[in-house]
Amino acid sequence: MPQPKTRWDIFCTVVDNFGDIGVTWRLARQLVAEHALPVRLWVDDSHAFERICPEIDVDLAQQWQQGVEVRHWPSEWVHAEAADVVIAAFACQLPANYMDSMAARETPPLWLNLDYLSAEDWVTGCHGLPSVKYKTVQKFFFFPGFKPGTGGLLRERGLLERRRQFQQDRSAQRQFLQGLGIDPAPDAQLISLFAYENTGLASWLDVLAGDATPTHLLVPEGRILGDVARWLGVETLTVGAIQARQTLTVQVLPFVRQDQYDHLLWCCDFNAVRGEDSFVRAQWAGRPMLWHIYQQDDDIHLDKLDAFLALYTKGLPPEAAQAMNGLWRAWNAGQPIGEHWLAARKHWPPLQENAEAWCLEQALQADLATALVQFYVNWI
């Protein structure tokens, strides 16, 4: 493994509110904590960062958080010496002066484009291939993924063991939920909802409200709140709001730090998530889930959705796989999902078993941070 003096720079342009910074913040912390590497995280939006790391001082250009040197990425770039490993997260464009600094090094750095997560077949073939070159500096593609031959997923050391212990400890779960002001009925199913705006939500809430099984719906503040408020018939929903309709209780949660969000997912019976960071964390929760993928032009995001579904549902009985496919596709098309939810509920035991089996299967691969470090070792 590389010596601790090997310096790493990670650049993050916040595009989708929290997904980009969520991934890069987890990665930076893990490289420091588990690989003893000095890491600078360059972020262009400190206010978005502050939501998942409240200790951040948004007015500081340079600070240290959990061992990571956090630097504000200014619109007018100032000179900074290039690191030994440079990660451009999600194809963000590095400052021209910084690229010149990379090229000026006696030994060119390893330059990686950490790409978006996808289960599509072509990812395996492109992972690790050279990309563009800037003067003497070669850039390489690095793809997270679900198959051998990709970079794997972000997973901290001991994560699944901590998750299992927590899920087996009712007292710990109750204490965590109470800390967020959550007091569900003893027989209520817990569902978390973190999603983009979705016109299909109302039909799901209708079904949940009319279900004989009580549901406590936990909604972290975010873009879906407007749709929830419209269904409830209220103008706005703020943090702490609790509204009940028949057997459905809706509670709005504050935006919490990453480790707290992990615990929230671990507490829930079902997790609806969005983007990339929460998508991966829901898989490590080992519970049935629903993914709201980020919409792209020409619906190319649906190819990514179908590619993941093909992998995720391959271990399910045909009827259960069909129910999950219908639920996910309707949700991502903004269509009513109430009937699809009822269809999925008929196959709950196999869906639960599949979620845990998928989690364990993905844990057989090297985690993303370790794969990045190993890529550098092989490169030098």
From TrEMBL:
Catalytic activity, reaction form: dTDP-beta-L-rhamnose + L-arginyl-[protein] = N(omega)-(alpha-L-rhamnosyl)-L-arginyl-[protein] + dTDP + H(+)
Classification via InterPro entries: EarP
Molecular function, one GO term: translation elongation factor activity
Keywords: Elongation factor, Glycosyltransferase, Protein biosynthesis, Transferase
Job of this protein: Protein-arginine rhamnosyltransferase that catalyzes the transfer of a single rhamnose to elongation factor P (EF-P) on 'Lys-32', a modification required for EF-P-dependent rescue of polyproline stalled ribosomes.
Family listed: Belongs to the glycosyltransferase 104 family.
Name of the protein in its database record: Protein-arginine rhamnosyltransferase
Source organism of the structure: Pseudomonas hamedanensis
